[in-house]
């Protein structure tokens, strides 16, 4: 299949970015942090009873630990660059790829957005007979199914149009943002108008049915949905479109299947991980491709060559007989500017991890190897990449597979084929597998099997992605990171506000679930095949939730000290160290943002958002975990609300990338509601303001009797910094509507702030 002659140029290259200057900056910051800690500790030894210094010492120890992890992670960044143009001369028969998309709620995830992502998948630059697209709908919505059916009709126009004209961005809502250039031929313009008209027709149809779903009642194809409730319905599997010609022609549209697994009330469905495992099974029965791409429903393909890019990595590995790469992860990029900080984090921390054992799995934009998902370890493979004889005996022994993969004969056969890298025997039609697909969708199909435990997407955490990736790395596999420009996938992030808080809390709680479960990286290095630095990388991500406590305390300390008339910061040289630390850190992070083309404003918003999300949202994840341990409540996956952006073209703040950016009028404006999330932030701002006011009203008191040999200036500066970082809250106190903090939150926070002030003063008397 692959031409292995070494005279041909490689399909991909690993690029390592060692930057000695950045290492020096990282180490300098680390050195400064350690010297500060040491100084605090020395003073603590002398005056043991100073609680403020104990708290500050503990917080700073935590921050130093985090920075130590960051320094280790960023030490040797790397990524892959692929050369898809070289594929054709080297590979005569490209491998098949099954593409998975999950959706869960037709209201929070508008079907037209799902349709666009699906269309971008169907139109990728890859032979149509090697692709199949599977959509899992946890919402069991006739509207979603209807939209997908309509999309498959439109795909017959869209896919050939994209391939013929070599369109780059193959999600119509994005593509039609721009008009064709004046230099284009009149034939193209005519085609363009026709396709746009057809797309608009599709949108209208979806809109009409959204307004009146009874329109579908008469259609027999929708019978399965009548009486179906979101959380109470049988399995539905529908072959929306089958590429019966079985050719890879440019005119052809890949297979397209809609599935919705059985749901019953009071039954744990394991959220996205459960949906992914059903996708794996159904696709195993139908097409059984050796590679699987998965995307979230809002993450459309922004680079038509993406499948070829990923295959470059897998195929080059097979040329080199290096078999350790389990998955290829593309970064999650976004078409809105709500996630600039995530983009920066991926670019630096993500590349750092990519240089160790490989990137963590991010849940979307990732190509997995089916065999690895079936639980095999790197040791199970022989030199030629096939199962070793011991592994063959273990896995394929009579009864073992049924015990692990469930009682469907067809499923077991497909697993045997996948493990031995053989395709399924040719079916005459996809619909032949419908019955078997229904069977593997039953609620209890997974009972007593290894699904979610050692095979497939892992259960037990709402961040199933990090969990599953960790499971794979712990079995000795590596992963690869490619970050093409323009980005391969683009999605949406909720703006700063309630939705973002819910999402961040879910993430932080999901990570803590992993930190304390049996796959914890704390033990993975010693008992499994997780590399040491990789376990540190996981530790960095998994401890996000825990950071909330030192961050909260540290934000309150300046105010407390000012009110309590005591010193927070050391004086003299060590005050200089703190100022230098803050300065270097600001410049360093600012440089990270600007080097990726982001603005100073975006940097500032991100710094502020980090403080807000850790003190306001991650804090609750600790509560979630405690309640879960006590058996009082379970962590749930609340789907993030996605909105279809207005299709108006305008240029955005980032220098890059696409053919026109979406407008973002309220960029950076923070939204509030009455939820408890906004209580800690409001409290911090009120307390800090009170301290500042107290300090300016009674300056004599401060200068005369300030204990700890500090004038209070440093603490006052600390307070100003806190207020600046929580600026959205300060503004929120004066705004109305969704940008204003509700009175109920304000009054609760004010009450707590009064208690805090009294408490701080109380100590003085
Ligand atoms: O019960 C569920 C819940 C969610 N989903 C799907 O999961 C995807 C991600 O959900 P979303 O609400 O967009 O979560 P995010 O927090 O934005 O997603 C990030 O975080 C998740 C948890 O770590 C990962 O699964 C995602 O891939 C990653 O993009 C979406 O396609 C949903 O439709 C389901 O299929 N079933
Ligand atoms: Mn999302």
Automatic annotation (TrEMBL):
The keyword Cell wall biogenesis/degradation applies. Signal peptide: none annotated. It comes from the Eukaryota. It is a multi-pass membrane protein. Pfam families: Cellulose_synt. It is found in: Endomembrane system. InterPro entries: Cellulose_synth (IPR005150), Nucleotide-diphossugar_trans (IPR029044). Keywords: Cell wall biogenesis/degradation, Glycosyltransferase, Membrane, Transferase, Transmembrane, Transmembrane helix. The keyword Membrane applies. The chain crosses the membrane at residues 20-39, 51-70, 537-560, 572-591, 618-639, 676-699, 711-730, 742-762. Its main location: membrane. This is Cellulose synthase-like protein B3 isoform X1. It comes from Camelina sativa (False flax).
């Amino acid at each position: 299949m692959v031409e292995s002659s070494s005279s041909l140029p490689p399909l991909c290259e690993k690029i390592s970015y060692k930057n000695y200057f950045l290492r020096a900056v990282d180490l300098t910051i680390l050195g400064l942090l350690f010297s500060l800690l040491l100084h605090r500790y020395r003073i603590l030894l002398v005056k043991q009873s100073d609680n403020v210094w104990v708290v500050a010492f503990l917080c700073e120890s935590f921050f130093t630990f985090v920075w130590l992890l960051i320094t280790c992670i960023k030490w040797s960044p790397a990524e892959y660059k692929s050369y898809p143009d070289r594929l054709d001369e080297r590979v005569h028969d490209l491998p098949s790829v099954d593409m998975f998309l999950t959706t869960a709620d037709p209201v929070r995830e508008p079907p037209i957005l799902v349709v666009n992502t699906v269309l971008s998948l169907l139109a990728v630059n890859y032979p149509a007979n090697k692709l199949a697209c599977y959509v899992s709908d946890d919402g069991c919505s006739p509207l979603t199914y209807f939209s997908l059916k309509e999309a498959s009709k439109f795909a017959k126009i869209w896919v050939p149009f994209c391939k013929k004209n070599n369109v780059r961005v193959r999600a119509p809502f994005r593509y039609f943002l721009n008009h064709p250039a004046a230099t284009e031929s009149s034939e193209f313009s005519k085609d363009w108008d026709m396709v746009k008209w057809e797309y608009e027709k599709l949108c209208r149809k979806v809109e009409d049915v959204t307004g009146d779903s009874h329109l579908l009642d008469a259609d027999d194809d929708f019978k399965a949905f009548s009486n179906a409730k979101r959380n109470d319905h049988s399995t539905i599997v529908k072959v929306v479109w089958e590429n019966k010609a079985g050719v890879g022609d440019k005119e052809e549209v890949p297979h397209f299947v809609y599935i919705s697994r059985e749901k019953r009330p009071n039954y744990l469905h394991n959220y996205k991980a459960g949906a992914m495992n059903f996708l794996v099974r159904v696709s195993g029965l139908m097409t059984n491709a050796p590679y699987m791409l998965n995307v979230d429903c809002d993450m459309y393909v922004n680079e038509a060559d993406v499948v070829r890019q990923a295959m470059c990595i897998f195929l080059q590995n097979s040329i080199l007989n290096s078999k350790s790469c389990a998955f290829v992860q593309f970064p999650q990029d976004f078409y809105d500017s709500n996630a600039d900080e995530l983009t920066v984090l991926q670019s630096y921390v993500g590349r750092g991890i990519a240089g160790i054992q490989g990137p963590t799995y991010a849940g979307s934009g990732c190509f997995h190897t089916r065999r690895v998902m079936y639980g095999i370890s790197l040791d199970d493979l022989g030199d030629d990449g096939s199962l070793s004889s011991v592994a063959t005996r273990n896995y394929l022994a009579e009864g073992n597979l049924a015990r692990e993969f469930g009682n469907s004969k067809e499923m077991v056969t497909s697993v045997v084929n996948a493990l031995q890298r053989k395709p399924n025997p040719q079916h005459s039609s996809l619909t032949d597998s419908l019955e078997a697909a229904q069977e593997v969708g039953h609620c209890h199909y997974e009972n007593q099997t290894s699904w979610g435990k050692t095979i497939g997407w892992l259960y037990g955490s709402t961040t199933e992605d990090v969990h599953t990736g960790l499971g794979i790395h712990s079995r000795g596999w590596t992963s690869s990171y490619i970050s093409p420009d323009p980005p391969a996938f683009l999605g949406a992030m909720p703006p700063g506000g309630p939705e973002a808080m819910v999402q961040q809390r879910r993430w932080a709680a999901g990570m803590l679930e992993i930190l304390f479960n049996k796959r914890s990286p704390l033990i993975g290095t010693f008992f499994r095949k997780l590399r040491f630095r990789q376990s540190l990388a996981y530790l960095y991500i998994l401890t996000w939730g825990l950071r909330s406590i030192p961050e909260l305390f540290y934000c309150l300390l300046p105010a407390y000290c000012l009110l309590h008339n005591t010193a927070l910061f050391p004086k003299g040289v060590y005050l200089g160290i703190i100022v230098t630390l803050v300065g270097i850190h600001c410049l360093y992070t600012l440089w990270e943002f600007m080097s990726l083309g982001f603005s100073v404003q975006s940097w500032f918003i991100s710094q502020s958002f980090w403080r807000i999300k850790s003190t306001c949202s991650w804090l609750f994840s600790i509560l979630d975990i405690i309640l879960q341990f006590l058996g009082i409540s379970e962590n749930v996956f609340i789907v993030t609300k996605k909105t279809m952006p207005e299709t108006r073209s305008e240029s955005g703040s980032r220098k890059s990338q696409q053919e026109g950016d979406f407008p973002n009028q309220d960029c950076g404006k923070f939204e509030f509601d009455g939820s408890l999330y906004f209580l800690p932030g409001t409290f911090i701002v009120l307390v800090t303001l009170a301290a500042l006011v107290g300090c300016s009203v009674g300056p004599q008191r401060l200068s005369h009797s300030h204990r700890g040999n500090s004038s209070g200036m440093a603490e006052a500066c600390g307070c100003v910094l806190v207020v600046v970082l929580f600026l959205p809250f300060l503004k929120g106190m004066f705004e109305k509507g969704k940008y204003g903090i509700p009175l109920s939150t304000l009054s609760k926070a004010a009450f707590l702030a009064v208690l805090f002030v009294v408490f701080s003063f109380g100590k003085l008397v």
